[in-house]
Every structure is written in structure tokens, then in C-alpha cells.
TrEMBL record:
Residues 101-120, 136-155 form the Helix-hairpin-helix DNA-binding motif class domain. Has three domains with a flexible linker between the domains II and III and assumes an 'L' shape. Domain III is highly mobile and contacts RuvB. It is found in: Cytoplasm. The lineage of its organism: Bacteria, Candidatus Joergenseniibacteriota. Keywords: ATP-binding, Cytoplasm, DNA damage, DNA recombination, DNA repair, DNA-binding, Helicase, Hydrolase, Nucleotide-binding. The gene is ruvA. SUPFAM superfamilies: Nucleic acid-binding proteins, RuvA domain 2-like. This is Holliday junction branch migration complex subunit RuvA. It holds the Pfam family HHH_5. The RuvA-RuvB-RuvC complex processes Holliday junction (HJ) DNA during genetic recombination and DNA repair, while the RuvA-RuvB complex plays an important role in the rescue of blocked DNA replication forks via replication fork reversal (RFR). RuvA specifically binds to HJ cruciform DNA, conferring on it an open structure. The RuvB hexamer acts as an ATP-dependent pump, pulling dsDNA into and through the RuvAB complex. HJ branch migration allows RuvC to scan DNA until it finds its consensus sequence, where it cleaves and resolves the cruciform DNA. GO terms for molecular function: ATP binding; four-way junction DNA binding; four-way junction helicase activity.
Length: 219
């Protein structure tokens, strides 16, 4: 019986994949549950009932996946380009998927740029930057210039909300300063970002967060 159910699952996924290739049901796969079989820079491979999906993901998702074992659930968005294979984007949290959809709805923001924007910080932090109109902070994302950042703020400011947005933005700016200082000392930016994510938000102030980041980097 289990073999029969497994075969049915594989057949169902085959039908879904076929429909994707024909351009139908672009939003049909809302989430995947399975095991991550491989992690590479910029994407991971997820096995679901014997079918392997290549899923594009940001640094924050990749880092979180590398710390998980066993079965995981990933929320998904799929995009089609003419004369190209469909691209599947994955997110650990449903709120990340919702913000990704909002960012991509802004003129000039493609799915890969929206994915890079999500690496700017947590979802509440990014929403806070939009609410506070901090174009300078948003434009630190590769591929986002000042005009594009201002367009994001203009189009999304009334669609998102978070409490304590001012404090969240100040926290993001402080971590950006710590990151720049450590990169200036020769540390890898990717490793510094990962170290800062591991530091408790209760650690406040530039000096304390700088020292805590150094400690994480030396582990």
C-alpha cells in the first residue's frame, strides 16, 4: 500500500511539473516538504517523493537550512521566462514569501533582486526600513539604486506595517556599521553577516555588538 501511495505522489508531482512546463498553474506549488539533498551557493536541491527540485534561495535561507536536519517545509514562488526553464524560489517563513511577492510587484524589481533584498535583514527589519523611508539603507542591496529604493518605499509604504520601526532601523544601521568595520579588518562579509545573525538582540551598542561578532568569528 505504501508503495502505491508513493507512486501516486510521484505521478502527481510529474503532472504538476508538466503543467508548469506548459505555462499553467504558476502558483500551484505553494510549499514543498521533503529533505534537502544538496546545498550550494545560491540554491539547494530538495527531494520530494523521489523528485529533486532545484530551489533558489537567499543567504539567510541557505544558512538556516545548513543548520537543519531531517524533513523541512519550504514556501515557494515560481517564475517563468521565455525560452528558459521555470525558476523556483524558496523561503523558510511564509512572511518572507509574502514580502518577496510585494517586493517583486514593484516596477524594476525582478525576483532575484527581491531575493537579495530579503538578505538585508529579518522581515520586520526590512518592513521597518520601508516604513521609515530609509532609501539609503535599502540601496545597500546590490542592484538597488537610490531611485529604485525610493520607488519601493513609495509603492509599499502603505501596504506593510510593523511596531517599533524606528528602533529596528537604528539596529540595522548599527549592524551595518559593525559589518563594515569587521570587513575593513579583513573578515569575509558573508561570515560577518552570519556572525551578526547569531548575536542576541539584547546585545546593544556598537562596541558590544562588535566584540560579540569578533567572538563568534573566532569560534
Amino acid at each position: 500500500m505504501y508503495g502505491f501511495l508513493a507512486n501516486k505522489s510521484i505521478f502527481a508531482l510529474y503532472i504538476i511539473a508538466s503543467l508548469y512546463l506548459r505555462g499553467y498553474y504558476q502558483d500551484m506549488i505553494y510549499a514543498l516538504r521533503g529533505r534537502v539533498s544538496e546545498i550550494r551557493e545560491g540554491f539547494f536541491v530538495m527531494e520530494c517523493s523521489g523528485i529533486f527540485f532545484k530551489v533558489l534561495a537567499g543567504e539567510r535561507t541557505i544558512t538556516a537550512l545548513s543548520e537543519r536536519e531531517g524533513e523541512v517545509k519550504i514556501f515557494c514562488a515560481t517564475f517563468f521566462r521565455e525560452n528558459a526553464s521555470p525558476e523556483l524560489f524558496g523561503f523558510f517563513e511564509e512572511e518572507s514569501l509574502r514580502l518577496f511577492d510585494l517586493l517583486h510587484s514593484v516596477s524594476g524589481i525582478g525576483p532575484k533582486t527581491a531575493l537579495r533584498m530579503l538578505d538585508l535583514g529579518s522581515v520586520p527589519n526590512i518592513i521597518a526600513a520601508i516604513m521609515e523611508g530609509d532609501a539609503a539603507l535599502l540601496s545597500t542591496v546590490p542592484g538597488i539604486g537610490k531611485r529604485t529604493a525610493e520607488r519601493v518605499i513609495l509603492e509599499l509604504r502603505g501596504k506593510v506595517t510593523v511596531q517599533g520601526s524606528g528602533d529596528l532601523v537604528q539596529s540595522m544601521k548599527m549592524d551595518a556599521d559593525v559589518e563594515d568595520a569587521l570587513v575593513g579588518l579583513g573578515y569575509s562579509r558573508d561570515k560577518v553577516k552570519e556572525a551578526l545573525r547569531l548575536i542576541s538582540k539584547e546585545v546593544q551598542g556598537f562596541q558590544d555588538r562588535f566584540k560579540a561578532a569578533i567572538k563568534e568569528l573566532r569560534h
